[in-house]
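Batch manifest, entry 17 of 40.
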Amino acid sequence: QVQLVESGGGLVQAGGSLRLSCAASGRTFSSAAMGWFRQAPGKERESVAAISRSGGNTYYADSVKGRFTISRDNAKNSVYLQMNSLKPEDTAVYYCAATYSGSYYYYTRVNDYDYWGQGTQVTVSS
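Output type: structure tokens
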């Protein structure tokens, strides 16, 4: 089984930065396409960023483009989300997700992913 453990969430003022980490175990990490999602209260879970198995291809939601950066270190079995210029509307629980299926570079739908972390809370105060 695959286990994903997120860390790095917290409370930050608007304009600040946070770096989320997700440590994976259980299967060959470099075989997984990875993604970051977020879910705010009363809203559906949405894709924030995604990255291909090699790290050479990335996707960003329009709402975070230019502010967030997804990266991965296959030697450390980890994926990261650097979040800069944070806004109150970025407040949500952030989840990392993994899929070992398919042949696309990356995936942006919740149903594309097989494994999920427990989530980490990010709160941005105005």
